[in-house]
Amino acid sequence: MNEDFSKLLSPFQFPVSGIQVDNRIVMAPMTTFSGNEDGTVSDDELSYYKERNRGAGLLISACAYVTPQGKAFPGQFSAYSDDMLPSLKRLAAALKENGGKAVLQIHHGGRMCPPELVPGGEPLSASAVAPVREGAVTPREMTELEIEETIAAYGEAARRAVEAGFDGVEIHGANTYLIQQFFSPHSNRRTDKWGGTLEKRMTFPLAVVDAVKAAVKKASDKPFIIGYRISPEELENPGITMNDTLALAEVLSEKELDYLHVSTMNFFGASLRDAADATPRAQLIYDKVGHKLPVIGVGGVSTPQQANTVLDTGVQLVALGRELLIEPHWLEKLKNGQLDSIETALDVHNQSGLHIPIPMWNSLLTRTGWLPLKE
Fold first, then answer.
1. For the domain with range 12-374, which CATH number is right: 3.30.1490.20, 3.40.190.10, 1.20.272.10, 3.20.20.70?
2. Which of 23, 101, 106, 12 has its CA nearest to residue 66?
3. Residue 23's closest CA among 59, 47, 51?
4. pLDDT, tens digit (0-9, with 9 covering 90-100), for 169-198
5. Dihedral sign from CA coordinates of 202, 300, 63, 234
6. What is the three-class DSSP state of 59?
7. Least buried of 55, 62, 258, 329, by fewest C-beta within 10 Å?
8. Residues taking part in catalysis
């Protein structure tokens, strides 16, 4: 019997902005490493996005850094000054040209920024605590002024997203970057209003949300999506627990956001902290707040059947990251009933056909355990 994919292909309306997308598929943000040295989007990146702009109803860009001090990758593009507006307009237009809704992910790397990429060679974070990784650099603790300036920079980046023609922004509060660093008891050892208790560790993330909302309200007279990306757990001790995240999700659900994007490598994987706890993290978050704040699940989803299984948990939208690198026409093939022709392994001889920029391609091929390869 043929499986029913009508829910995957059904429209979804975001509750706060009222913006509607044509289906439940989201293009997850994927770092390209391929921007120009001046922080602008490269032609190769635009080609990459144009090849995938029919792949989902909601299209989230790679992360754009909001201050020069926040650059976390070689080839990362930026949204830190008005000089970037022409570049951002090109990106928004490329994402939207086939009717999808375009979201700019806004980001600061914090202590994960390589020293050679940031002014003064000095990464910043909530506290002077190094990441748990080989060769990690200890960041400098941010001053009160730097914290306030960074919060304002997120708002300014959101304003630029409005002016560039994006349909929304996603606040990157996940994947060990600055916002998560303020929320984490591992990286945030402060004793002022920005750290200490669980509630105080929420202060910076919530201030960023407020700054983005205020900037969008001032800059836009049209509906505009505001989402938030979150990582549910950390391996470090002390580190973010699921209880911490559920508490933050509850507070975020009162902030009139359009969605919460739960970042996991495998949607169906067990807890990072307790292998006996096999319930998907996004499902736990959905069970807590999904009636108020729509949830996007992501991680390890390749086939339409797996995407259906994600939606069966109650989670409202499913994001494809690696799969849209492998198969840019995933959604078109689903709509046309061409399920057997959907590729689920990367063709290592088809870089140009897939329109994947060379720096991104080289990164993919060096991470063979992260991506299935098709020789």
1. 3.20.20.70
2. 106
3. 59
4. 999 999 999 999 999 999 999 999 999 999
5. positive
6. strand
7. 329
8. 177
pLDDT grade for 229, boundaries at 50, 70 and 90: very high
Q: pLDDT tens-digit profile of 349-367?
A: 999 999 999 999 999 999 8
Provide the Cα torsion 80, 83, 86, 91; round to 10°: -20
pTM metric for this prediction: 0.98
Return d(Cα 69, Cα 72) in angstroms, integer: 9
Q: What is the mean pLDDT of residues 208-236?
A: 98
Whole-number Å distance between alpha carbons of 40 and 34:
10
Angle between helices 43-52 and 85-96 (to 10 degrees): 20
Q: Would residue 25 be called left, alpha or beta, if left means φ above 0 and alpha means ψ between -120 and 50 degrees?
A: beta
Could you give the angle at the alpha carbon of 79 between the alpha carbons of 46 and 67, nearest 5°? 140
CA distance 299 to 269: 9
Contact 150, 108 (CB under 8 A): yes
Mean pLDDT of the chain: 97
- Beta-bridge partners for 319: 26, 298
Tell me the C-alpha distance between 55 and 25, whole Å. 8
Q: Specify the pLDDT at position 285.
A: 98
Q: Report whether 250 contacts 289 (CB < 8 A).
A: yes
Question: How many helices (H) and strands (E) would you count in the chain?
Answer: 13, 14
Taking the C-alpha atoms of residue 302 and residue 268, their distance in angstroms, rounded to an integer, is: 12
Rounded Cα distance, 295 and 132, in Å: 29
Q: Is 99 left (phi over 0), alpha (psi -120 to 50) or beta?
A: left
Q: Where are the domains of the chain?
A: 12-374
Work out the average pLDDT over 33-55.
98
* CA dist., res. 227 & res. 149, Å (int): 21
Condensed to tens digits (0 to 9), the pLDDT of residues 256-305 reads 999 999 999 999 999 999 999 999 999 999 999 999 999 999 999 999 99
pLDDT, mean of residues 328-339: 97
